[in-house]
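User: Please predict the structure of the protein below. I'd like the answer in structure-token form so I can feed it into my own downstream comparison script.

Assistant: Understood. Taking the following sequence of 398 residues as input:
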Amino acid sequence: MNSHDAVRPMEESSSSVTQTKITGIRIHSLSGSLSERFGWSLNWTQSRTATLVEVTTESGLTGWGDGTCDVALLAECADLVIGRSPLEVEAIYEELRRPGGPQQRPGAPTAPGLDLALWDLRGKILNLPVSALLGKQYRSHITPYLTSMYRKDWPDFAQGMAEEAQLWVSKGYRAIKMKTGFSPTVDVEIATAVRKAIGPGIALGIDSNCAYDAGTAIRIGARLEELDLMWWEEPLPADDFEGYRRMRQALRIPLAAGETGSVDWLTLNYLQPGLVDVLQPDLEHIGLTGARMITNLCWLNRIRLVPHNWGTALRTAATLHWMSTCPPLTPAIHPPEILFEFDQTEHPFRDAILAETLAPVSAGGGIAVPQGPGLGVTVLPQIVEKYRTSLVTIGNPR
């Protein structure tokens, strides 16, 4: 045997992996109870839920994603996925897009969670982190803005919010977001109390979850302008486009929105008209394939991109990969900072489903982008099973 023959088995093995086909899909619905309920402008909750998508292949490699999944439509279109190469992830995404329609959010993908799982598989097959597949990695750590500060059963609402804000700042977070949308009087009271508690040096955002009409929001905003807010998220329903135009003309507070939109819907209604200052798409609804499109569109339209992130740590890992590849928005020495949402509300399984811990490296520091193949994290099946409420299987998972 010569040296050329000696490496042939390795080459054949590598080739078989790159040519591997998808054999099956498992869709895991998870739920877990909270020790204390919390609320926002639309509702209260006593639990947290998630949908995880697991994709298996002939080679034994498995990919995982966290995001929505139209199970019935995916099962109907299973032949567009089963038997195909995971390397065709972008083609699969396009072929699974729903037909347009005003109630269907035109162009919405059937299974963004599947898309994340296929990107994870693509990276594992090629032995590269997803960030390397998405493009240039501009940064190895991403700065989080802290999300927690929901309404709880405090005897004094403003005091409770202020004390929680101080707690997070004491842990090193330099940007935080709080819930509003409870009433004009309450919103001004709690936002003022939080700003007073944390001081002027901490970035503070507010999120009203579509609570108001434009006239009411403008009246509230006039009183909030002095608080130097980093943005006001979803003061209006997502489709109140004229209301957002009125608010941008009337207020100096940057407007943010976009967490539930598909790529096409966000492009048509928010990006092209320049309706908001900060776009907040969520991988749950656009997948990583859609994220690549949104990144370029935000850069071309000079709109700041700050992803919404309300899933498990698996989705956080995917968001870290995505944000590491976003180019600077301007050529300035200090361009607008790249941020993403880091949920730290109570969650029974958000972090438990991964073997790795995703957290800031130091007080006030960023979160490291995982560098292993694929998403670079390890899902723990026993934890998934512990919190699983239903399982749907498509194809023949190995």
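That's the full token string. The radius of gyration is 22 Å.
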